[in-house]
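Q: My collaborator sent me two sequences in one message, no labels, and asked for predicted structures for both. Can we handle them in order? The first one she listed is below.
A: Yes, handling them in the order given. First sequence, followed by its structure tokens:
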Amino acid sequence: MLIKRKQTPSGFKTPKIKQPDKNRAFELSELNLAVLAAIWIGNAMLIYHLFQSTLIPLLTISRWYFLFGLVGFGAAFLLRKRLRLSILDGLYFNVFVTGPLCMLLFLGINQIGLKTYTEQYKIVDYKANGGKYTLELENKAYGEFWRIRNVSYDSRPARMHEIEFTFSDGLLGYKVLKDSRLY
């Protein structure tokens, strides 16, 4: 006589999966991610403001940002068990917090300059560019740093023949523009 037995479709018992204890593991909630995004936006605005007056090429500042993020990610990776972070959480913290804060600190420390000096250049040409004039200076001075050669439409560079920059050498070695004046 045949006896019918009840089986799962695969013929095997379904294993019970042990769920991690949610109180022990660190998790980023939507609120935490929103706070990280707000911190990142605030840092980005401050970094942009400091970057405008620092004579540092975009590629160099990108390398510094990458280095800060890499070092922070490495620290988070090594301490992930102690901090109860997943690899993705460590990446979030470094993209949104560690990298921008280190960059802000880097640019802020570089803003400290003790000795100021001035440089004068003749204006060779100027072009209208997005609400501002971009000046071309003699000997293509500061050609890579268009952001310090921008002047507002109100300044009327057609009547001006020279520009004077006041710089200081930053504490970390990058020039910082303190003031500029057309005359």
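Q: And the one she listed second?
A: Here it is, processed independently of the first:
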Amino acid sequence: MRLKIFIVLFAVFTASGCAPPIGTIGSSAYDSMWTVPYRVVYDINDKFERFSDVSIFASYRGAIQPIPVNKVNISVIEDPDWSELENPVPTDTDYPFLITGRKVIIVKYRGLEARYSIDVRDPFGLGGGNQNNEGSGIIIIWATP
């Protein structure tokens, strides 16, 4: 008899430890978000490719989950030293960098925001001058025949 009670109690306690909780404690929102940039240095006329240049992860109840890039809003601050104006990155095309200097990439998802800096340089002297009037301002886009 004692053995049967022990087995039943053991099964109940084991099942209750493995069962999901009833109801929720707190909100169902994500706790925090991270970005993993794959590129932080771009050359002038390079493009920010949202599907290959960054990955996004969020913490939900202690578990890290990947967030699809097409579900987030991504924008660029072209000149963070002078303005906080955000230029949205389209979901279907890439975002070209035509001016050298430091840029800030902003990723937003469900009320969370992550930022990181990138640098756009002009190693070949193509002339994409920054706001300090450096460079000629001429932009060359090479076309293939």
